[in-house]
């Protein structure tokens, strides 16, 4: 943390007085520069104050002419940092808004009960199918096998597997009817 004027050595006081004078005489120009970059006078005020604190901390290493350049460069750099942070925060806020619109990861108890009932009705419908049709449907639609893999397993053509799966889907749809799930 930078030293305040009360706690400085006698040799540091004239330098800090010069830095304060430099800041006071150029504060308006610094604010205008920061406002132009940030588009917000409140943010510009914060940036200019932060820049002065950096100058205060590092002022002993600078000549007074370099201090003014340092101050303007620091304001510019802090503005760029602030804009980057605001852009990043904006992206996170947009992602948060998108996530808030997603459905809850766990269904409600009512939705779970309806899902279980729907699953039971589907199992009943599959139980009514011939074994070969049921197996083609289960392998293809529930276990993720390709029609060629199912055909190889059933020792049938891929075309026949296609028809078996189509028939099973039709039967399940008609059995479920106007089921709400």
UniProtKB/TrEMBL annotation:
Residue stretches making up the RNA polymerase sigma factor 70 region 4 type domain: 120-172
InterPro entries: RNA_pol_sigma-70-like (IPR039425), RNA_pol_sigma-70_dom (IPR014284), RNA_pol_sigma70_r2 (IPR007627), RNA_pol_sigma70_r4_t2 (IPR013249), RNA_pol_sigma_r2 (IPR013325), RNA_pol_sigma_r3/r4-like (IPR013324), WH-like_DNA-bd_sf (IPR036388)
Keyword Ribonucleoprotein recorded: no
Domain RNA polymerase sigma-70 region: 22-86
Signal sequence region: none
Keywords: Sigma factor, Transcription, Transcription regulation
Family: Belongs to the sigma-70 factor family. ECF subfamily.
Protein name from the UniProt record: Sigma-70 family RNA polymerase sigma factor
Organism (species): Pseudomonas benzenivorans
């Amino acid at each position: 943390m930078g030293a305040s004027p009360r706690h400085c050595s006698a040799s540091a006081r004239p330098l800090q007085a010069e830095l304060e004078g430099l800041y006071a005489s150029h504060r308006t120009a610094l604010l205008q520069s920061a406002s132009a970059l940030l588009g917000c006078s409140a943010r510009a005020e914060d940036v200019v104050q932060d820049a002065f604190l950096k100058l205060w901390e590092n002022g002993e290493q600078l000549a007074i002419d370099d201090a003014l350049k340092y101050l303007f460069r620091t304001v510019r750099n802090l503005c760029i940092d602030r804009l980057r942070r605001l852009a990043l925060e904006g992206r996170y806020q947009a992602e948060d808004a998108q996530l808030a619109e997603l459905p809850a990861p766990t269904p409600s108890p009512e939705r779970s009960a309806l899902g279980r009932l729907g699953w039971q009705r589907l199992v009943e419908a599959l139980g009514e199918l011939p074994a070969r049709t049921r197996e083609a449907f289960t392998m293809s639609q529930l276990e993720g096998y390709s029609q060629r893999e199912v055909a190889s397993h059933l020792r049938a053509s891929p075309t026949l597997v296609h028809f078996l799966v189509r028939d099973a889907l039709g039967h399940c749809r008609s059995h479920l009817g106007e089921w709400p799930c």
